[in-house]
Automatic annotation (TrEMBL):
Annotated stretches, region: Disordered: 1-27
Keyword Repeat: yes
A Pfam family of this chain: Pentapeptide_4
UniProt protein name: Pentapeptide repeat-containing protein
Domain of life per record: Bacteria
InterPro entries, sorted: 5peptide_repeat
Gene3D superfamilies: E3 ubiquitin-protein ligase SopA
Protein keywords: Repeat
């Protein structure tokens, strides 16, 4: 019997796969605050949430299908087992949204405030995040498939134990981001800030643009206990050796 191969294993690098685009409906109905509160096990289909305040609400098992969010406020929302399919988010506030065991499929997010978002133990498939503020966000134990981050602020984001196979980061600030125990075969970084990231030794199989390597090399050296000596230190060390020789 052939041995089972786990995702991301082997010597080859996982190829990049562009996310599939959302499938928007031909028309949308306008959602209202009175008729479309987040209730447990509720389903929302082909609705436009425009300038709608849903902040602070909580519900389990909510499903959104072919919905559009523009100028809406979902800050502080708490979801468990939620699903977003073929949805579009634009100029919407998702700050401190907390979702567990939730999914996004064929979803586009653009110019969002997502500071402190917690998307834990979930799944993102065919998702594009563009120009989003994702600082202090957490995606622990989440599986990513066909996902791209473009021009996002991901400072101190937490990807611990996430499966980032094939994910692409372009023009992103990942200063201080955490990747401990993440799976990163084919994860691509292009023109990103990678200073001070954690879990750098989990980056086996990642693909890094040459211009991003310099900053990462210092973090990697530190993780491996390697001291990088600069020219001034080297000269000072040589000078000490010469003085010592004269004293003898």
């Amino acid at each position: 019997m052939a041995a089972r191969t786990s995702r991301g294993s082997g010597s080859g690098v996982a190829p990049f796969r562009a996310p599939a685009k959302p499938r928007p409906p031909a028309s949308l109905d306008l959602a209202t605050a009175e008729d479309h509160r987040l209730e447990p096990e509720s389903t929302f289909q082909r609705l436009a949430f425009v300038d709608l305040d849903l902040s602070g609400q909580a519900a389990d098992g909510v499903e959104f299908m072919q919905c559009r969010f523009k100028g809406a406020d979902l800050s502080g929302v708490q979801l468990d087992g939620a699903a977003f399919t073929d949805c579009l988010f634009e100029s919407t506030n998702l700050a401190n949204l907390r979702a567990e065991r939730s999914s996004m499929i064929r979803t586009g997010l653009s110019t969002l405030r997502m500071t402190g978002v917690h998307w834990i133990n979930g799944a993102l498939r065919d998702v594009t995040m563009s120009e989003c503020r994702l600082d202090l966000s957490s995606f622990r134990f989440t599986n990513f498939t066909g996902v791209t981050f473009d021009g996002c602020n991901l400072t101190r984001a937490d990807f611990q134990n996430a499966d980032l196979t094939g994910v692409r980061f372009t023009d992103c600030d990942l200063t201080g981001a955490q990747f401990s125990q993440a799976t990163m075969n084919g994860t691509r970084f292009n023109n990103c800030l990678l200073a001070g990231i954690g879990g750098v030794t989990s980056m086996a199989g990642a693909v890094i643009a040459h211009q991003d390597l310099a900053a990462l090399s210092y973090t990697l050296a530190k993780a491996l206990g390697i001291h990088i000596e600069n020219a001034a230190e080297e000269q000072a060390g040589s000078g000490s050796a010469v003085v010592g020789a004269h004293l003898r």
